[in-house]
């Protein structure tokens, strides 16, 4: 009976340790996400000839947070297990996940599920920028090692 209690206490300790470790990095995930959204939104507003202004940056940030949360953050959590600051491999993988994320999100927003979006320069530019900003802010806020691959 004593062994069972010890095992339960050990498991509870392991769980509390993991929760504690996770709670230490959650703010960094948040800062990375917010910085990425604001960076991408700012560039999108500037390239739309600034007709939206600051309101546009805020509104677009709320739109781009969804694909970042669905596609980039899970990959970011996986990468944070083996952190590498400014890793080109991680950047390429962010691009890989950014392409379907931008495709799906733009198809849903435009109610157009055709493949026509794949022939536009904007699709590739937005995908590349989304990956670049997320990779940059991820490296700044989360990855502690300074080695690049």
Q: How would the blueprint of this fold be written?
A:
Blueprint: H1 2-47, H2 53-79, H3 88-110, H4 121-141
Describe this structure in words.
- By secondary structure, this protein is an all-alpha fold.
- 79% of the residues lie in helices and 0% in strands.
- The radius of gyration is 19 Å and the shape is elongated.
- The termini are far apart.
Strand coverage percent: under 5%
Average pLDDT works out at 80
The number of helical segments is 4
- Structural class estimated from helices and strands: mainly alpha
Distance between the termini: 51 Å
What is the H-and-E element order? HHHH
Radius of gyration of CA atoms, rounded to a whole number: 19 Å
Question: Helix coverage percent of residues?
Answer: over 70%
Indicate the overall shape. elongated
Q: Which stretches are poorly predicted, pLDDT < 50 over at least 5 residues?
A: 145-149
Largest β-sheet summary: none
Total beta strands? 0
């Amino acid at each position: 009976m004593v062994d069972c209690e010890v095992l339960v206490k050990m498991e509870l300790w392991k769980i509390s340790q993991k929760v504690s470790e996770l709670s230490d990095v959650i703010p960094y995930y948040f800062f990375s996400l917010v910085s990425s959204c604001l960076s991408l939104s700012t560039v999108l507003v500037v390239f739309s000839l600034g007709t939206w202004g600051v309101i546009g940056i805020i509104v677009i940030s709320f739109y781009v947070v969804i694909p970042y949360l669905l596609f980039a953050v899970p990959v970011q959590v996986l990468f944070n297990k083996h952190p590498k600051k400014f890793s080109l491999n991680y950047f390429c993988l962010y691009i890989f996940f950014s392409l379907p994320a931008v495709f799906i999100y733009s198809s849903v927003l435009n109610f157009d599920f055709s493949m026509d979006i794949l022939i536009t320069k904007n699709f590739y530019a937005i995908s590349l920028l989304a990956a670049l900003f997320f990779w940059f802010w991820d490296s700044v806020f989360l990855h502690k090692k300074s080695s690049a691959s």
